[in-house]
Amino acid sequence: MNLLEVTTLSKSFDHGKTMALDQVSFSIKKGKVITIVGESGSAKTTLIRLISGLETPDYGEIYLKETLISSVTTMIPPEKRNIGLVFQDYALFPHMSVADNIGYGIKNKKDKNIRIQEVLNLVGLEGYDKRYPHQLSGGQQQRVALARAIAPKPELLILDEPFSNLDTMLREQLRNEIFEIIKATGITAIFVTHDTEDALAVSDKILVLKQGKLIQKDKAKTLYKKPETAYVASLFGTIIELTPSILKEFDYPLNEKKQYALRAQDIKIEKNTDYTLDACIVKSHFMGEYYQLEMESPKGNHFLIHVNKKAKKQKMSIGFNEKDLMIFENEN
Amino acid sequence: MTKLVGNKNKIYSLENKAKRFKRDINQWSIITLIIGFIIAIPIATIFFKLFSGPGETWNHIVYTLLPKYVLNTGYLVVGCSILVLLMGVSTAWIVSRYDFPFRKQLEWLLILPLAIPSYITAYSYAGVFDYGGTLELLLRYFSISAIKIDIMNMYGLILILSLSLYPYVYVSARTVFLTQANNLIEASRLLGVGEFKTFFRLLLPLARPAIIGGLILVLMEVLNDYGAAKYYGISTFTTGIFRAWFALEEPETAVYLSAILVTIIFGLILLEKWQRQKIGYHNDIKSANRLLRKQIQSNKKWFLLSLASIPVILGFIIPVMQLLYWVGLTYEEVFSFEFLSIAGQSLGVAILAALLTTIFALGLIYFTKWNKLHFIKNLSKISTLGYAIPGAVIAVGVMIPTLFIDKWLYKVFRSVFEINIGLFINGTIIGLTYAYMVRFLAVAYNPIESSTLKIGDKISESSKILGKGNFITFFKVDLPLIKKGVLSGLLLVFVDVMKELPLTLILKPYTISTLAVKAYEYASDELIAEAALPSLLIICTGILPVIFLNKLITK
Fold it and tell me: For chain B, N or C: smaller number of CB within 10 Å?
């Protein structure tokens, strides 16, 4: 059974002149975690605000457990949807203690205190119940926000850019912890991010939004290996676009109607690849985990490649294998 | 991928628009519209009355009085603009740029003249410069032959109004200087530009939108003034409206004059909007650091201190001294049971009006949020325009429709219940409170709105997502967080009602009086010394919020 079903959902903020969200459809099975990825302006936030009932759709339907909750004619208010939402900036109630924040949404008055302790344990904040939000660190506030959202046992949990306010170290640690909690509770979750590393790490399925349109939805591995457009490919790692003139130098039998690209690490400094060519290093930059080399081909084409070791020679053979080549329909 | 059905034309078809409208309209949309309607009635009345033709004396007024009203009002506007700009901007610059003894005290003392309604400043200066007045007495004491200065004319009125209103410009200019000027000054000095040039070439243009914003507030108060102009014998639009209504007994003429005045004011508002739009940069510049004050040598220190003290001495200390002197002479006569009762009535009316206005403002803000129709969201802001409209005009606008409703109610009650109810709204506390609400809604609305903007929508949205409805969210989450804004709204409306004169004069019930009205009545009866006690009490209630307001600004 699909827990959530979204069909041709659309929203515009200027009466249709520009579509913020343009006919997006997808569904989520119970217990799965899906990620919505997109740059800022891709309408990820609009999409989840529509799902949680904070915005009204211009068109399309949203079903939760096969009940219609949003459409052109129906609008169940957010307080009656049983959906949990963790805001990007947490939006904790500043005048309430941690326990009051977490207890706020719990309907069963009798078991309230037991449930508060339960979720505090779950997020690893035992003993913090009497503190106030301003007395907590960013990571702790994040955990309280999560605890508050899952305390009423929502059908669906939405996390809006939950790690964007945290520094890199904390981010990775908390990401793992929080998704362990989500997996442990078996809750269905939508996770919104612009960081594709987050997306690849945690999700069963990824939706890619671009300017309000859903451009691809697939499993993480498929998205990485078989992106449908150069745009999707570029979201999940540096790509090198291979122009017809470069491909001709490699003697590749190109089709003018297609677009070709490679991941930066798929250009190898080897002779025995499927297509090779001799090129010169123009510049070399140490980037920490790899070296970035700017190469020039005999006919003057420039491109960047990523290699593990520092290049010793000025001139070398580079090449790529047929299987690594990504081929797209020409977008123009 | 899912097959896409429908397209933009279908989504925005008339049929779907109608469906969405039916889905989104709720009780809050309707209540918001009703509140907006109630608040808009007086202004709409003035507008519609324009089509029913002027009164009999209109032609006479156009040829004889109107040129004088226009000219006098024009003189006042120009004169006050020049004076308040001089006083407000120079003092703001001195206290934000230089450090000198008593600067901190002076910073908030400079706001205090705002606590004195301009008609009270006018009364006390009349006393200072009168025949046998305080100045003459003082001069005689030092055996100097008295110089007679006549202040009760146009120049005097300009001076009085400017002295009591310049703080609007001072406050807005100072905020910009303190929060936005530091980086610019540092950059300018690194480029080797002198202090003088930096001020005129960089800082004045930077602060211009804020300064003009303050100036517009001053001009609205100038146009609203009745007490001072009346006492100094200057005919303006506002005194003209009174004259038409009470002396000529021609409401139609009063409406016509009101309409002209409202047009001028809307012109001013549009001008202000336009100048803000034209200068889009002023908000972009934000100094991370507050302005660092310059240390200066001792001679100059005392010079700056005395220069910046002039508006405080003229605008606050002298009038208050004069009032205290008068109170000393007259309190035994004035202070009576009747006076206490008037003070009590004044407090009561002000508290009632402040509470109701704040509740209306809260309602307008939150019902608009709970409503989902977009056009209503834009509409509700218009309801706060009342503050721009002079009290006398609002009084006229309230009088006409309430009389109409009262007559109707009277007929209905007599024919259906056979009871004579008299006038139910007009000339009763209901009508008066209603007019205060129309006039001061913005005073409560603005601080509340800015505190809701400060917390943002996410917090109340969180509450709704956690399963709580609008009302529980409001009382448990919103209200505790916007407490400060609500309190300042209450306080500011309270003080404004205490001070308000023209509107109260026209609409108050016969049985009720306020301190402001009492002071006005004493002054009109040439018992100006007796006006001092009620005036001082008004000033006392006015000082507290001025201090409070200053705290809010400097925070």
Answer: C
Of B8, B463, B481, the CB nearest to A94: B481
Q: What is the pTM of this model?
A: 0.84
Residue B115: alpha-carbon gap to chain centroid: 12
φ, ψ for residue A62, nearest 5 deg: -125, 130
| B459, burial (CB in 10 Å: exposed 0-12, middle 13-18, buried 19+) | buried
**Contact A80/B at CB under 8 A:** yes
How many CA atoms are closer than 13 Å to the CA of B61, on its beta-carbon side? Answer: 25
**Which of A5, A24, A72, A76 is the best mutation test for B, with the most CBs of B within 10 A?**
A72
Q: Nearest CA to B315 among B132, B109, B113, B152?
A: B113
Nearest-by-Cβ selection for A72 from B19, B464, B465:
B19
pLDDT values of chain A reduced to their tens digit, one per residue, 332 residues: 789 999 999 999 887 788 889 999 999 999 899 999 988 888 999 999 999 999 999 999 999 999 999 999 999 999 999 999 999 889 999 999 999 999 999 988 888 999 999 999 988 899 999 999 999 998 899 999 999 999 999 999 999 988 877 777 778 888 888 888 888 888 999 999 888 877 777 778 999 999 999 999 998 888 888 888 888 888 888 888 888 888 888 888 888 888 888 888 888 887 788 888 888 888 888 888 888 888 888 888 888 888 887 777 778 888 888 888 888 887 65
Chain A, window 105-124: residues with a beta carbon less than 8 angstroms from a chain B beta carbon: 105, 107
Q: In chain B, what residues touch A15 (CB-CB under 8 Å)?
A: 12
**Ranges assigned E (strand) in B58-150:** 98-99
Write out the H or E segment, with its range, that includes residue B41: helix B27-49
Q: How far is A58 from chain B (nearest CA, A)?
A: 7
Instruction: Give the mutation candidate from A6, A23, A160 for the B interface (greatest B CB count, under 10 A).
Output: A23
Measure Cα distances from B461 to A256, B213, B477 in Å: 52, 34, 10
Nearest to A104 among B4, B5, B466 (CB): B466
ipTM score: 0.86
Which residue of B377, B462, B479 to mutate against A (max A Cβ within 10 Å)? Answer: B462
Distance between CA B537 and CA B320 in Å, rounded?
Answer: 11
Contacts of B462 in chain A (CB under 8 A): 85, 87, 91-93, 148
Our CA-based measurement puts residue A79 at a distance from the nearest CA of chain B, in whole angstroms, of: 4
CA B444 to CA B493: how far, in whole Å?
A: 6
Beta bridge partners, A29, equal: A2
